[in-house]
Design a protein that fits this description.
heterodimer; A: 154 residues; alpha+beta; Ubiquitin-like (UB roll); 5 strands; globular; B: Uridine Diphospho-n-acetylenolpyruvylglucosamine Reductase, domain 3; Enolase-like, domain 1; five-stranded antiparallel sheet; four-stranded antiparallel sheet; 12 helices
């Protein structure tokens, strides 16, 4: 089946099977390996991408279902070689340990800041609760999101 | 569930099927009439795709609701509040109408999964998946919701009490599609509460409970208590409701009523909790929910 969608700002055309998962289209066919395969059943958030700006799980989404929509992956956040403030803040706060959860974590945090530019710690933790970090670096992750929010407000 | 993760490759969807994305409701109903038993409806996919990955179901046809905008949206209508079955859980959570008119549903929907799950999942999907633990189900039972089902033969209205038939089973015929949820206007000055116990706030409920009640002249008038994850379907605690109706809500009465919930539940032991724990948790949740509801109805509580 032929689908067309916007991926990180670019129009994309792809040939997919009905049972192709969005995650596998991104990673294996389009070679965007930022989104990760974690649990495969909607518990961990490692495969998070933005669909029309909202975080969704690409391992539980059929690729055909994004026809005509807009997808943003972690690869689409930097602009002209400049990291997104969230990416910078994650580096500066040491919010990255093994890095496996980071792409999903940053994309979910981006959706949060787009919706609520000045979230409280509680709001950050609530919004990010579907993104699991098994290095357990949550403290620095929360700090990084706060720092990015402050920077983006400037 | 944790045992399944390592045994089954959830990396791919190992099932071939024909994908349909009807443009109109009529077209969707025709497809259902044609493929019925062999078809599954794809709404948000958060439950369906997991079950397909685990090969618990292997549908030959997938009928996607993605183009059916008529199945989306929340509006006030003459008979109450209408929610399209394919309305995203996140949209319900964000809805001003729901937050103001049906805070019980607002709170129950917010308790479902993560942001990602609520951006994908729909209210109709949460109901049709028929998990005994569905958070939206107990709230809608307490609210006395009616479910609208359509087939090419026409429309049928099913009270939510008659909708659930067992884990994963509903009253829908294979040719029927759940199109809308209709919630009657809630009574004046009602009290309500939603309570959920899970290991983490992301979890499926170990036990959940919803209460809606009104007071008249200091006595309990209307009273609905619903519990989830303690029987093959979400259930009403009818004995407890009867014990409360027409009586003054003293701490003793609330205690007696919460003990009575055991009459209407039949919990099992599973990975989320033991049957014994669920019995005790049910009593405690109902007692707390009743106290909070009475307080919210202006009765002062405990």
């Amino acid at each position: 089946m032929k689908i067309r969608f916007k991926l990180n700002g670019r129009e994309i055309e792809a040939e997919v099977e009905p049972n192709t998962l969005l995650l596998n289209l991104l990673r294996e066919h389009l070679h965007l390996t930022g989104a990760k395969y974690g649990c495969g059943i909607g518990e961990c958030g490692a495969c998070t991408v933005l669909l029309d700006g909202e975080p969704i799980l690409s391992c539980l989404t059929l690729a055909v279902e994004v026809d005509g929509r807009e997808i943003t992956t972690i690869e689409g956040l930097a602009r002209d070689g400049e990291l997104h403030p969230l990416q910078r803040a994650f580096l500066e706060e040491g919010a990255v340990q093994c890095g496996f959860c980071t792409p999903g974590m940053i994309l979910t945090a981006k959706a949060l800041l787009d919706e609520n530019p000045n979230p409280s710690e509680e709001e950050i933790r609530e919004y990010l609760k579907g993104n699991l970090c098994r290095c357990t670096g949550y403290v620095n992750i929360v700090k990084a999101v706060k720092r990015a929010a402050e920077e983006m407000a400037r | 569930m944790s045992m399944w993760i390592n045994r089954i490759d959830t990396h791919i969807l190992p099932i071939n099927f024909q994908y349909h994305a009807p443009k109109t409701l009529e077209e969707a109903l025709k497809l259902l009439a044609e493929y019925g038993d062999e078809a599954k409806i794809l709404s948000g996919g958060t439950d369906l795709l997991v079950k397909m990955k685990q090969r618990l179901i292997e549908p030959r046809h997938i009928i996607s609701l993605r183009n059916l905008t008529e199945l989306r949206g929340i509006r006030e209508v003459e008979g109450g509040i209408h929610i399209g079955a394919a309305t995203k859980l996140r949209e319900i959570e964000r809805s001003q109408i729901i937050a103001e008119r049906l805070p019980l549903l607002h709170e129950a929907v917010k308790a479902i999964g993560s942001i990602q799950i609520r951006n994908m999942g729909t209210i109709g999907g949460n109901l049709c998946n028929a998990s005994p633990a569905a958070d939206s189900a107990v709230a809608l039972m307490a609210l006395g919701a009616e479910l609208h089902a359509q087939s090419i033969e026409g429309e049928r209205i099913i009270p939510i009490e008659n909708f659930f038939k067992g884990p994963g089973a509903t009253a829908l015929k294979p040719v029927e599609l759940l199109t809308a949820i209709r919630i009657p206007p809630p009574p004046e000055n009602y009290g309500w509460a939603f309570r959920k116990i899970g290991r983490t706030s992301l979890d499926i409920a170990t036990v959940n409970a919803a209460v809606l009640l009104t007071l008249r002249g200091g006595r309990i008038d209307l009273c609905r208590i619903a519990l989830g994850a303690v029987a093959p379907t979400p259930v009403r605690a009818v004995r407890a409701e009867e014990h409360l109706r027409g009586r003054e809500p003293t701490p003793e009465l609330i205690q007696e009523a919460s003990e009575l919930v055991v009459e209407d539940i039949s919990p099992i032991t599973d990975v989320r909790g033991t049957a014994e724990y669920r019995v005790e948790a049910s009593k405690a949740l109902v007692r707390d929910a009743l106290n909070l509801s009475i307080e919210r109805a202006g009765g002062g509580g405990r």
